[in-house]
Amino acid sequence: MSGLAATPRSTVPGGCGELAVLRERGRREVFCGLAGIIWLHRKIQDAFFLVVGSRTCAHLMQSAAGVMIFAEPRFGTAIIEERDLAGLADVNAELDRVVTRLLERRSDIRLLFLVGSCPSEVIKLDLSRAAERLDQLQAGRGVRVLSYSGSGLETTFTQGEDACLAALVPELPAEAPDAPPSLLVVGALADVVEDQFSRLFADLGIDSVRFLPARHADEMPPVGPSTRVLMAQPFVSDTVRALEQRGAKRLTAPFPFGAEGTTAWLAAAAEAFNVDPERFRTVTALGQERAKRAMSRYRDQLEGKRIFFFPDSQLEVPLARMLSRELGMRLTEVGTPYLHRQNLAAELALLPADVVLSEGQHVENQLDRCRAQKPDLVVCGLGLANPLEAEGLTTKWSIELVFSPIHGYEQAGDLAEVFARPLMRRARLEV
Ligand code: SF4
Question: What ipTM was reported for this prediction?
Answer without folding.
Answer: 0.97
